[in-house]
Amino acid sequence: MIHSMTGYAVASAGITGGTLNIELRSVNSRYLDIQFRVADELRMLETGLREAITARVSRGKIDCRLSISTAATGPRAQALNVAALDELRQLAEIVRREMPDAAPLRAADVLRWPGVLAEGTVSEAELREQAAAVAARAIAELAAARAREGAKLAGVIMERVAAMRKSVATVAPFVPEAIAAYQEKLAARLREALGSADDERVRQEIAVFGMKIDVDEELQRLKTHLDEVERVLAKGGAAGKRLDFLMQELNREANTLGSKAASQAISDCALELKLLIEQMREQVQNIE
């Protein structure tokens, strides 16, 4: 299956004290480029996320945003921070030694001390487990979105391939017609200049002209490249770079065909081929 490099996905999961959110945005890029926007407390999840994305995506610029949103309403689990409580106790003992007359701390004072009363926090094990599950869903959604768009891009390219085959099929009959017209024109000029047409000279001139306008090689190469485009699309996978190369080769043959054009019909056909190739090239730039 052909995949586009453009896609979007979002997923979330509830954790202790809030919701873990992941957002993935994908756009075109020559290589795989993963950028993270992660809060400091979630930085340890970045390596696992990178590995998960790399396993499913081979090309494109991926913007990954990972965050935790706390619940706006409802009761919140709270607990005493033992470490902060011990620190406060040690400070209180120092104060009592230095200032024996100081009043002892009340419970309300202790609870108001910064860091003593903390909301329930998620454990690292739970965070890693939930992050892996959320990332799997988001990456699967991103891959599905890229696959849907890739299928449409492949359909557009196949339409252009069919149109090119039709144009190529119309070129071949024009070459003998161009040679016959040139032969008649050359004979008329010789009769006008010499009073008679030298058959041997006419044959020589026709042979030289025929070699100059022979486009059979270009037509065969165009057909071969179109066969390869169809094969690559049918095979699927990471095909963008291969298709981009084939677009360059198709354009090369179309240019040569145009330079050898011996009639307006062949010239028009070459221009039509170049237009179709350019339309395909624009779509190929979006393919993984």
Set down the secondary structure blueprint.
Blueprint lengths: L6 E9 L2 E10 L4 E7 L7 H11 L3 E11 L7 E3 L1 H17 L8 H6 L4 E3 L4 H48 L2 H21 L4 H15 L2 H20 L4 H20 L4 H21 L4
Parallel strand pairs: 3-4
Antiparallel strand pairs: 1-2, 2-4, 5-6
Helix pairs in contact: 1-4, 4-7, 4-9, 5-6, 7-8, 8-9
Characterize the structure shown:
- By secondary structure, this protein is α+β, with helices and mostly antiparallel strands.
- The protein has three domains: 7-73 and 125-146, Ribosomal Protein S5, domain 2 (2-Layer Sandwich); 78-119; 148-284, no CATH class.
- Helix content is 62%, strand content 15%.
- It has nine helices and six strands.
- The chain has helices at residues 46-56, 82-98, 107-112, 124-171, 174-194, 199-213, 216-235, 240-259, 264-284; strands at 7-15, 18-27, 32-38, 60-70, 78-80, 117-119.
- A four-stranded mixed β-sheet has the order 1-2-4-3, with helices on one face.
- The longest helix has 48 residues, at 124-171.
- The termini are close together.
Which descriptors apply to this entry?
Ribosomal Protein S5, domain 2, 6 strands, two-stranded antiparallel sheet, 4-stranded mixed sheet, alpha+beta, about 290 residues, 3 domains
Q: What's the average pLDDT?
A: 83
Secondary-structure element pattern, one letter each = EEEHEEHHEHHHHHH
Number of helices: 9
Count of extended strands: 6
Number of domains: 3
Radius of gyration: 36 Å
- What is the first-to-last residue Cα distance? 11 Å
Structure class: alpha+beta
- Largest beta sheet: strand ordering: 1-2-4-3
Q: Which percent range fits the helix content?
A: 55-70%
Cα shape: rod-shaped
State the major sheet. Answer: 4 strands, mixed
Spans where pLDDT lies below 50 across 5 or more residues: 72-76
Determine the strand fraction and express it as a percent band. Answer: 5-15%
